[in-house]
Amino acid sequence: MEKKPPIKEILEWVYCIIIAVVLALLFRYYIGTPTIVKQESMYPTLIQNQRLWLNRIDRTLKKLPNRGDIITFEAPSDTLTAEELENREPIAKYENQPKNIFSKFLYYVVEFGKESYIKRVIGLPGEHIEIKDGKIYVNEEELDEPYLQSGIVTSAKVKGLDDFIVPENCVFAVGDNRNHSTDCREFGCIPLEKIESKVAIRIWPLNLWGKVD
Predict the structure, then answer these.
(1) What SS3 class is residue 146?
(2) Beta bridge partners of 202
């Protein structure tokens, strides 16, 4: 049997590696990916260093999450001020976006230099959100939040984000650990196109494996 030239054999291996990397990136972007909980903003539902499987099919289908879903989304570029909210809808700001194709690929697909948050969806498009008396009200009804620790008080962090209507194609998302969470109470509602994934299951530790509520 004739032996292949070394350069041809090397090229074949390079092609195989490139194809494998591309397929892995496509799967990660469009289908799902594992992640590690790094912050305490979703405590006690999620604890630091737990491993999760994220479902990205809804992003691929451009489907809005449901209330109660735990999602990840691209971190906004800045918080909103009360003065800004007098002249604009309560939508998070994304001002430092990549400009060219290569930087977009690195940022959105490889996720190089990209920061994401993980929070729980509270408000959906068109709903009236009020934060008062230490609680959240949706369309004038107090929201039942059994996932919160006893005694947790919810407060608005910016005037104007305590009483508003969730804009079209946006969600209002908040961390379960209300006193230690940077969330929509500071930077406004998250547009659908900035939602990256929904938490599907917890995969580690094994004794807690399963759906996350």
Answers:
(1) coil
(2) 52, 210
Q: Where are the alpha helices (DSSP H) in 69-150?
A: 82-85, 101-104
Is-contact 197 65, C-beta < 8 A? no
| Strand stretches in 5-134, DSSP E | 32-36, 51-55, 70-74, 116-123, 128-132
Per-residue pLDDT tens over the stretch 125-140: 999 999 999 999 999 9
Q: What is the pTM of this model?
A: 0.91
Q: Which three-class secondary structure state does DSSP give residue 129?
A: strand
Task: Judge contact between 81 and 158, C-beta under 8 A.
Answer: yes
Which CATH number, 2.102.10.10, 3.40.50.720, 3.40.190.10, 2.10.109.10, labels domain 31-211? Answer: 2.10.109.10
